Fold this protein.
Amino acid sequence: MKGRFESVTNAPVVAIVGRPNVGKSTLFNRIIGARVAIVEKTPGVTRDRIYEWAEWRGRRFLLVDTGGIDVISGKARAGAGSRAEDELEIMQQTRRQAEIAIAESDIILFVVDARDGVTPADHDIAGILRRSGKPVLLVANKLEGKIGGHEAGHMDLYELGLGDAFPISAVHGEGVGDLLDAVIESMGQLPGAGAAEGETGEAETTGFVIKIAVIGRPNVGKSSLVNKILGEERFIVSDVPGTTRDAIDTLFRHGDQEFRIIDTAGIRRKSRIRDQLERYSVLRALRAIDRCDVAVLVLDALEGPTEQETKIGGYIHEAGRGCIIAVNKWDLVKDRENVMTQLERDIRDTLGFLDYAPIVFISAVTGKRVETLLQMIKDVFARWSSRIPTSTLNQVIQEAVVRVEPPSHKGRELKVYYGTQVRSRPPAFAIYVNDPDLMHFSYERYLENTLREAFGFEGTRIELWMRRKT
């Protein structure tokens, strides 16, 4: 699927790189004006590349936060035990992610901790950046209260061979304006800079952007699925649960439709959340559901639905988002016909409240049915956003009332007069009756099923609000 999914913009790309814990994510959040990247004192919090739009002096550009590039020492390579091997694998992939960001960027912000001075890791990174041939702005961070003073000089930073450093405090925003002025000036020197002056990115794309959240337990293949959709190695993939720590947005186009896809941290049971950082990652994953249009709930075909899927699916349902259930790792399943039948039955039994969500069996490794998944996302979004003409709606309601007589209670009969759609995303309908207390839940369910049969609504919940006609 490589090459079939395109970036939605040709705007300049600015990458923030540096070793771990020098303040890259703090600077990223400061520039975009929002807390998108997780900021912790723990080194290695950011592992994947995080993309977001930024604007300065009327110029819009794509800003990339990267994981810290660390020197992989001989000691780390010789580390004993599976935990050391896991950490080494993730360290190597984090470095690879940063190198990809450098390769696709137009301008690089190389952040160092001015309080530490120049370290061997800084020299290692500077060598990589010099070989890239890209414009590099050296950023001396953590100079709170020292911007413009004599102490901000830090002559040892010249050892890196990257020219003058821009002294800043990402935490307080000191010096960041001067740094961004230099970024804009560097953009003006890029090839084809004159033609790019009017680009504004996502705001000027045609049509609308569908926001997708990829949600599920740890290690079910969420990042692998997003990588397959994007056709590139955008996110770190590892068998180590918890590799993805943040909810990461990426813009792409498929055909004539633009998307914003959000890869999220795995949501595990509360009792298994180990630290505050992981707890915050789970919170960001749940917030990704709140801000998406369609949630793709990813299950492991070898394990089937669990209690945790029930909790995640319940959150999607309560949030009123469109939903698709993607059963991943289908390439590893034998006797697929029988397994598919049993899995569908188990999913419907376990996730009964998501009976409207379509199920698709996919393989993020081979790409099987990933195209089908994308088409389903478009279809579910259309149904989730749909509005039904009042005349058509009432024709269906009246036919339903004639077909099945409304219930009565103690001699009082429910009378259904008419309905109107009061909201979309998800669709909600006000049904006007003589007395809402006479509406039995079974008859309400019957009306809901009738509307689903008439208008589709696959992949989205619908709401019926009973109103007394006055």
